Structures are given as structure tokens and as C-alpha cells.
């Protein structure tokens, strides 16, 4: 397989892995404090989980519809009122469960890949 093909496959798999943990990261960020979507995006970018607004808003909407997030409107000095998201009690419960699962997954992957060469 050519290096270019390996790089393309690697990038595709990396995107799939990031997508798989995005909800966990969003719940975790919002569990710290209420957050405006652009603040969530900045936090995700700082963690190298690059997300654009077109990806984030549907996720926030889905998490809200599932009862995991709630939002409040706040007046803004820079324009119209803004939605600030916060985690619900159900969201906290799910986050704790997902963090446990994530810990087990990290341990399993580390164990499975410990003898792999770089």
C-alpha cells in the first residue's frame, strides 16, 4: 500500500474515532459550567477535536432532545440573546457512565497495542 493511501485511511479512521467521542467531550465540557456553543468549539479545538458549527449545533440539539442538556437564553451586548447550554442530572449520570466505559476502553486498547511497533 502506498504512503498516500495509508495517510488517507489513517485520516478517515481518525475522523471516525473523534466523532465517536465527541458527545462524551461535549457533556464533559458542559458539566464544568454553562457554555455558549462557540466556547465549546474553542475547547474542542484546544483538545485537537476540531469541530465546526455545522457539526456542533445538531449534536447539541440531539443531546437536548435526549434530556442530557438544557439551555437558557441570555442577553448579549454583542447582538441577539444567546443560548447557553448546561448538563442535566440525567446528562451527569450518563457522563459518569461514559467516563467509566471510556476508562475501560482506554485500558483495553493500551493492553491490546502494548506490543505494537511504531
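-> sequence recovered:
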Amino acid at each position: 500500500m502506498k504512503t498516500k493511501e495509508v495517510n488517507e485511511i489513517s485520516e478517515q479512521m481518525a475522523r471516525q474515532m473523534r466523532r465517536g467521542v465527541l458527545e462524551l467531550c461535549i457533556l464533559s465540557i458542559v458539566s464544568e459550567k454553562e457554555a455558549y456553543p462557540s466556547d465549546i468549539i474553542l475547547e474542542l479545538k484546544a483538545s485537537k477535536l476540531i469541530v465546526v458549527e455545522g457539526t456542533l449545533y445538531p449534536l447539541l440539539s440531539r443531546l437536548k432532545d435526549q434530556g442530557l442538556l438544557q439551555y437558557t437564553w441570555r442577553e448579549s451586548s454583542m447582538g441577539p440573546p444567546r443560548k447557553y447550554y448546561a448538563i442535566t442530572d440525567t446528562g451527569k449520570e450518563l457522563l459518569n457512565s461514559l467516563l467509566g466505559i471510556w476508562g475501560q476502553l482506554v485500558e483495553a486498547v493500551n493492553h491490546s497495542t502494548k506490543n505494537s511497533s511504531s
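The chain has one domain: 3-113.
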